[in-house]
Amino acid sequence: MFNEKQIRDEAAAEVAHHQLQEAQNETRPSTSGKRKSMHPDEKVQINRDRNREHAKNTRLRKKMYVTKLKELFDKMTAQRTADEAERRALGLRIHEMQTIRKNVVRLLLSYRSTNMRDREKWAVILDESFEFTLPITPYRSFPKHNIVNSSHVVTGIDAVIADTASLALMAQSICYGTPQWQAAIKCGQACRLAYTVSRDDMVVAGEWVMCRFSLRTEGSEQVGALYGCVQHGMLQAHFNSENKLVAAEMMFDVMGFMQQLQVSFFSFYYYFISGLREGGIDDIACFVTTYLTLSFWRGGDDQLL
Question: Is residue 252 part of a domain?
Fold first, then answer.
């Protein structure tokens, strides 16, 4: 911080120290006694010399003061430059980290919609202990032990891959059995899903990323659907220091999407969701009211069908 008095005192001290050294180096004639009288001209000369010395010292102090100010200015400029460079570097690191984490969220949704089966690719973005929390979706199958506190909780990379396959099977089963579906399946053009996320809808705060997403069905008309369905929701994701996902939670309107499926995909065929094989129909009685043109394939002994 600038302190004028301190700088002036330092400048005066340096000038005094310099003068003291000069005085010590000068050889002065020794006087053996005091002069009792002095000529008036000599007095005038002594006064002139004294004034000249005083003026000289004043100029030296001012010059040293200016030098001190320049040194302080250079020091403060260098410090400001270093601080700005550090802030820019920190900003670039934060921006890079945020970009990486946004891309990881996009990859999560992309892998989920394309039924990614490559575990190595999942391992790049997910921690081995990754926990994925979803609403309970009665229109597709999943192991009953994944139901935790009225939510569908998927833990681990392998479980995420299995849940992604269940989502893809649900999409492929839309309008199952209709002539259009059979023709589309022969051509490898079954209904599929696609997530979209706007860059402006993604917010990064520390280790958390939140965004809005839209899930849409594609190729619905080819399998005989009246129109496609859209699911809007929110996703919040938690990252570790390695920019890998350690937890994520999806929130969306389950019943709203089911109603879209019911209206859009109703045909000559209708299907309903059965209960847990071991738990009985009472455990999910609220689910057995929905008519869908979906086929729920029989899985393991502990799966919803």
Answer: yes
**Which pLDDT value is given to residue 202?**
94
Helix (H) / strand (E) element for 214: namely: strand 208-218
What global pTM score does this model have?
Answer: 0.67
Cα 245 from Cα 130, distance rounded (Å):
6
**Total domains present in the chain:** 1
Q: Is residue 304 part of a domain?
A: no
No. of H helices and E strands in the chain? 6, 8
Q: Is 267:175 a contact under the CB 8 Å cutoff?
A: yes
Over the range 44-58, which residues count as b (16 or more CB within 10 Å of their CB) and which as e?
A: eeeeeeeeeeeeeee
Q: 133 in helix, strand or coil?
A: strand
Q: How confident is the model at residue 247 (pLDDT cuts 50, 70, 90)?
A: very high
Domain of 272 in residue numbering reads as 101-287
Place of tokens 């601080």: 83
Q: Is the dihedral of CA 261, 264, 265, 268 positive or negative?
A: positive
23 or 62, higher pLDDT: 62
Nearest to 248 by CA among 100, 103, 131, 151: 131
The pLDDT of 157-181, averaged and rounded, is: 90
pLDDT band of 255, cuts 50, 70, 90: very high
Q: Give the Cα separation of 46 and 56 in Å (integer).
A: 15
- A 10 A CB-CB count for 273 gives 20
Give the residue-averaged pLDDT of 104-127.
Answer: 96
